[in-house]
């Protein structure tokens, strides 16, 4: 069940409406109230005309940075939902923000963009010396296949400003994912938002997967298209199916969600999620893949129990007023498959998590999958 009332108990201003609502952007504006906002973020269901929504929002908030993306589902007041436009406003009294559009990711000019990001970061800090904390939020075209390069390139320019983000979605259709800044709509693009605050913030990522001893090696791949052609010198889909004990002709998104693979980076494991099997029997991945990569089969823990435990950690020293969460579509699929959707939705609602389901997640310099990334907000008197 979804409320359409304003949700204003925290530091952020939040509202949501069904896409079937008459004049949905005007309705959102009414529910957000009159508080001046420096930043407005919109998570927009693909069931509505995205261009109309962002155009109306930019006209309604001409003095506010308006960032938007399409989703693979929304996280609203009642947890997991679909068919919503979710709005998150950052009051100007408590936050300062600047956003950068990064177009044509296939022709990304690394040096020029990192210089621009570094300059904007310093300028934002200089303009707001009383705002001592901050973070960066990235949204990127979820079908661009450029997230890995993008995050690895821009992260150093942020210095000590922690980065999290997500890949825009298109439900489960995987046809068109869109991002926008102040009415400018992009495919093959991204929007990076730098945010400073007088309050405390804590960027986080979580996944509920435990690596097993079962491993496989990528022996033939097309890294540009994120396609694995062979594993252990055998056709990729059939070998993956053999290793996880499944019928190779019955592989689907539920199989991939319940039998994920991870790679070791530094001392940690990060998910490299499988999107689909193509007509050639190859595996198409959501994130970077290459020949010689060792993939480890992971075993999911109880997702609801794990989420509660991690939310309790975020609340250990102080209770967050709000949490923005970018949650992989594969987590939602697994929750549905294991009949945990209602329990997880209750937890998301209990901890004031607002966000959307994604085609991938970013944390620091990494693009990952089957993960939730996000940021928790704490009032200044509290210390996370």
UniProtKB/TrEMBL annotation:
FIST C-domain domain residues: 236-365
A Pfam family this chain is assigned to: FIST_C
InterPro entries found in the cross-reference section: FIST_C, FIST_domain_N
Endpoints of the signal sequence: none
Ranges of residues in domain FIST: 35-235
PANTHER family, A to Z: BLR0328 PROTEIN
The name this protein goes by in its record: FIST N-terminal domain-containing protein
Native organism taxonomy: Bacteria, Pseudomonadati, Pseudomonadota, Alphaproteobacteria, Rhodobacterales
